[in-house]
Batch of 2 targets.
Target 1
Amino acid sequence: MEPLISLTICDPHRTYRPGDTLECEYQVDAVALEEVKAIESSVMWWTEGKGDEDFGVHHFERRTVSDSPDHDLRNLHRFQTVLPNSPLSYDGRIVKIHWCVRVRVFLKQGKETFFEQPFLLGHRDTGIAPEAPESPKAEQDED
Amino acid sequence: MFLVGAIALAALAASQMLGEAAPLVVTGWLLWVVLLVLISFFLIGAGGIVRALLQVSASAERRSVISQRATEVDLLSGVDKPAPFPNVEPDADITNSPGVRLAYRLPAVETPFWQVLSLAIFCVVWNAIAASLTVLAVKTFLAGEPDWFLTMFLVPFVGLGVWVIYYFLRRLLFYTGIGPSNVEISDHPLYPGRSYQVFLSQSGQLRVKRLEIALVCEEEAAYRHGTDIRTDRAQVYRKAIFSKKNFDISPGLSHEEQVDLPIPENAMHSFKSTSNAVRWRLILTCRAQGWPLIERAFPIVVYPCSAENAP
C-alpha cells in the first residue's frame, strides 16, 4: 500500500508575489515507522508545452532518520522559504511555467512516492494574453 | 576505464613481482609514467562509477540542486552568489554600448557584416578552385588531348561559381543600399507597466513605402525529434510603437524619430531555460521601393516586477 502524504500550503489562495514567504507543512501516514528512509521537500518550477520539460529547484530539504530526534519522519513537519523574483507563473501558447511544492518519500527497498501542490508566483494575470500578431506581410497588400 | 585501469595495474604489479621471468618488464622513468597513466585511468573510472551510482539513487530535484549549487559557487571567492533574477537573461550585452541621443544603443540580433564576409570568403575560395580547374581544362584542349570528364565536371562547378558571385553582389548591394538602422533606448532593463523612450535612426538612399518599429514577444520551445533538436517559435504579442508611410531618405542623411515604448502591465518577463524561452524584441521593418522587405531585430530584456522595483 502506498503511504499517504498530506501536504498543505498555508495560504489558501496559493498566489504569491516575489519576496513573499511560502509556508508549508506535510506529514506521512499509512506507513510503518521503519519503512521510511528519507523525505525530500522541494519548492520548484517546471515548464510545460511544446518544448522539452525544464525545471528548477528553489528550495530543497532532505530529511533522513538521523535528522529527526525521535527517528520518526512521518510526523508533521513545517518549512518555509522566501520566493524568488523569477520565473513567474506563466500560461503562454507553447511555453507554460508552473510552480509547485513537492514532497517525495523514500521507502525501503528503493521504492519512492511523491505528492505535489501547485501554487502561483506572480499575479493571476501575469503573462501577456496571447493575441494574433499584426503581420507586416499582411499589410503589404495595402501599399 | 575503471576496468582497464584496474586490470592493467594488476598486470603491471604481477610483472614487477615476476622480475626477469615476466614477458614484459618496465623499468626506470617509463615505469613511473605507465603507473601515473594507469592510476589516472583507475581514479577517473572510479569517479564515474560513483557519480553514476549517485544519479541512480538521487531524485531529480536533488541532482538539480547539486548541479545548481556547483554552478553558483564563485570559484574565486568560494561564496554562493545566487542570481537576483533567476532564469532572466542578463542585459550586459545590451547596456555596454552607450547611445548618442538616449542611454543605450541596442545591438542587432545579427549583423550583416559577418554574413557578407563569410559569403565573400566562400565566393573567393570556390571561384579560385573553379579558375584553377578551368586553366587545367584549357591546357588539355591546347595540347590536343581534351579531358572530357574534367570539362563536364567543370560546367556545373563554374555555373555555381557564377551564381555565388551574383548572390554575393546582391547581398552586398542589399546591405549597403538600405543603410544601417540605429535604435537607442532610454533605460534598461525594462519593467512591466513602465514607459520608455526609443530613438530610431535609419539611413540609406531610399523611397520608403513603410517604416515600422514593433514591440514583439516570442516564445521559443526546443524539443528532441529522433536525433534532431527542433525549435518552434510563436509570436504571442506584437504592437507597433511607430509607423510611417511614403517618405524619402536622402543620401547622406538619416531619418530620425523618437517614440514612446510602453511595456504592457501584465507582460511576462524575459525567460530562458535549457529548452524554453520567452524573448522580447524591438523589430524594425522597412519596405522601400525596389528593395525586398528588410527586418532587423533588437533584443531587449523585460524584468519581472519585484518588491523593490514595483511601479
Target 2
Amino acid sequence: MTNTLKPTVAEALEVMKSKELGQIKVFIVEDDQMISDLVTAKLSLSGCIPYSTANGAEAIAMAELYTPDIIILDLMLPGMTGEEILTVLKSMEDLKTIPVVIFSNKSEESIKEKVMKLGAAKYYVKAATDLNMFVAELKDLVQK
Amino acid sequence: MSELSTSELLTIENEKLKEIIKSLDKSAQMLLLRDVELREANNKLTTLDKQKSEFIAIAAHQLRTPLTSIKFAHQMLSDSISEKLSEDNLKVLESARLSIDRMFTMIEDLLVIDAIDYGDLQLAHESFSIETCVEDILSSFTEIIHNKQLQIRKNFMENPPTVSCDSHKMRDVLSNIIDNAIKYTPSKGEISISTMYTQDNLIVTIDDTGIGVEQRDEHLLFKKFSRMDNAKLLDANGSGLGLYIARKIIEKHLGSITFLNRLPQGSSFIISLPL
C-alpha cells in the first residue's frame, strides 16, 4: 500500500463519526469525473459517506483502507478492469462480504451474467438508472 | 453428295463433344473463379458487419456516458429546485427529461436492432409480473392520459402469476404498444388492457379506439423503419423501429404478437407468451 493512500487524521475521524451515526460508507470506483461527482453529491445529500477513485489499480488498496459498507464499481477503468477488481475483492477474506454493485453503461446480457457469477450484488446500466432509486437500493443492500 | 461413313459421323460427334467439354471446362473454371470472388466478398461483408456491430457497441457506450451525466444532473436539479419553479419552468424541466429518455431509447433501439440483425439478441430470464409492469407504465403516462381525458380499462385477475422473461425487454415491448395506443388515440378515447392465463400461455390484449391502420398498410406494421401515413401526421419523429423490435423480442421469447384491425376506429394488439 502506498503512503498516499493512508487516511488523514481528519478522514479517520470522519469514518469513526460515520460509524457512530450509522451512516453508510460508499466507495465509488468510476473514471468519468462528472458521473463520479454527481453520484458522490447525491450520496452525500442522502446521508452516506462517499469515497471515490477513478483508477482501477488503486481500488483494491483503497477498499482495504476504508472498508466500505458497499462498493459501486464501473467496468471500463484505467489500470485494472472492473471484472478484475471484483475477482480480487471476492478472493479477499476481509473484503469478500462487502456487496459490490456494478455500475456500467455496458448492457450486454453476457457481461451482466459474467459479473453476477463473479459475485456482484446487482448490475445497473448507468444511463437507465434512476438516481433516487439507486441510492435507496444501495441502502437496502447494505442492510440485508 | 455421298453419305458419310459411320466412322466419319463418329469423328464429327466426337469433335462436337470435345467442344462441349471444352466449353463446360471453361464454364466450370469461371464458376470456380466466381465462387472464390463471392467467398472473398462474403468474408469482407462479414468483417464489415462485425466492425459495424463493434462500432455501434462503442458508440452506444460513448453516447450513454455523457447522457448519464445529463440525466443525473437533471434529476438532482429537479429534486432540489422543483418546488421553487413556476409551472412554465417545470414544463421546461419535464421537456428536458423526456428528451433524455428519448435519446436513451434511441441508443437502446440501435443496440437491439444490431443484436437482432447479428442474430445475437440475448435475453435475461427473470420473474416478471405483466400486470405490475402495465400499472407502472401507465403511471408514467398519467399526465398525458389526464390531459387527453382517456379512459383506461384494465382487466386483470386477482393475484396473477408471474412469468419468466427478460423484464427490461418485455417492459420495452409493453411500453411501446401502450405509448402508441395513447399517442394515436384521440381525446376522450378508450384504451383497454387485459391479461388472460391459459394452461400454456399468457395472453395480453391491448385495445384502443385510436386512428387504426389502413388495410393497405397492415403488412408494413412490423417491418423495420415502416411508418404509417396517418401516424406521421400525429407524430413526425417516430423511428419506425418500435413494433419491429417488439415482434423480434416476443418471438425470441417463443411467443407471438398479432395485430387486429378494428377500422373504422381502433387497433388491437395481442401478445401470446408461453408460460
